[in-house]
Amino acid sequence: MSNPELKSALEVLQTVSPNTCSDWLVIYSPRNKGLSAAAIKEWFARLYRTLGMDGCSSHSGRRTFITQAARQVSVVGGSLRDVQQLAGHASLAMTQRYIEGDTEAKTKLVARV
């Protein structure tokens, strides 16, 4: 597991509620029914449609965070490796797939170089 905090939290959850982790469902509906990853993804899709947020998905926030972190990491003295580790990715190649390009930023960068 690439994220030690997540691993630790799941181990605590398994200790407190052993039946919960037996099927790896850790998020429950108000009816106490465990939700699968697909059910959570669909819940986000319905929520975004209801709110009129076209183009958003259950992964949108993650993609936005990784893109923003990649744009700001050098300001705090970090590197893309730090963003990779925050994202919990095994490789920079995976992190790279999450980072959105910005034409205006590229133009500004070329002008500075």
Notes on the protein architecture:
The protein is mainly alpha-helical. The chain has 2 domains: 1-56, no CATH class; 59-113, no CATH class. The chain is built from 7 helices and no strands. The radius of gyration is 18 Å and the shape is flat.
Q: Please state the overall shape, judged from the principal axes of the Cα atoms.
A: flat
Query: What's the number of structural domains?
Result: 2
Q: pLDDT average, as an integer?
A: 84
Structural class per helix/strand content?
mainly alpha
State the helix count: 7
Low-confidence stretches: none
The percentage helix is: 55-70%
Beta-strand level of the residues, as a percent range?
Answer: under 5%
Query: Helix and strand string, N-terminal first?
Result: HHHHHHH
- Biggest β-sheet description: none
| Global Rg | 18 Å
Number of strands: 0
Separation, N- and C-terminal Cα atoms: 40 Å
